[in-house]
Amino acid sequence: MIKYPTMKKVTEYSKSRNRDTANQGMALEDMINKTNEYYLQHDIAFINKRPTSIKVIKTSDKYKISEAVFLAPSTLDYVGICDGHYLDFEAKETASKKGFPKNNIALHQINAMKAIIKQKGITFAIIFLRAFNEIYLLDGQVLIEEYNNNKTIIPYEDIKQFGTLIKEGYFTPVDYIKVVKEKYFER
Asked: How many whole angstroms separate alpha carbon 38 and alpha carbon 45?
């Protein structure tokens, strides 16, 4: 089980834990990673998944990490550049039919978005609503405002109203750069 934040123990995955919740977010990240490979191969953008900073304490057979500690809280999931614009964004996934639970994003991630906006970078969240099989780009400023209200969830209707639906591209599972260019570059 991974315990967070900094310097807490990370131990092997508990078999009693529900695998759906353990791998939540991985489907979206896999789709984004495949999309990013396409973007790189076709000189569209250079976007990388930011690794989580850990220190390995113990390994088991075949170099499997059995114990580790987080060195620092991570910021956002992805960082990169497209057409000279700095991009930094988070990928989130939920099965909720009501919307996006705000406890799925940490305060240090909201603070990272604030700092990026202050430096005139582009920041957003890509949110996969599995219940509707829809993926939205939600601007960082909108996410910050929603995070600061008293609700526990960003309602589905708000995501539809303030977010932008990302469609699957011909060669890309999540063609988010098309939305980024329309939303941020063509102002």
From this structure: 9
Boundaries of domain holding 165: 23-51+74-185
Of 15-24, 34-43, 47-56, which has the strongest mean pLDDT?
34-43
- Is this prediction's pTM over 0.85? no
Q: Identify whether the C-beta of residue 123 lies closer than 8 Å to the C-beta of residue 140.
A: yes
pLDDT in tens, 162-172: 999 999 888 89
User: Can you give the CATH number for the domain in which 79 is found?
Assistant: 3.40.1350.10
Q: Give residue for tokens 């991630």.
A: 109
- In the chain, how many domains are there? 1
Place of tokens 């700095």: 86
3-state secondary structure 6-32: CCCEEECCCCCCCHHHHCCCHHHHHHH
CA distance 166 to 143: 17
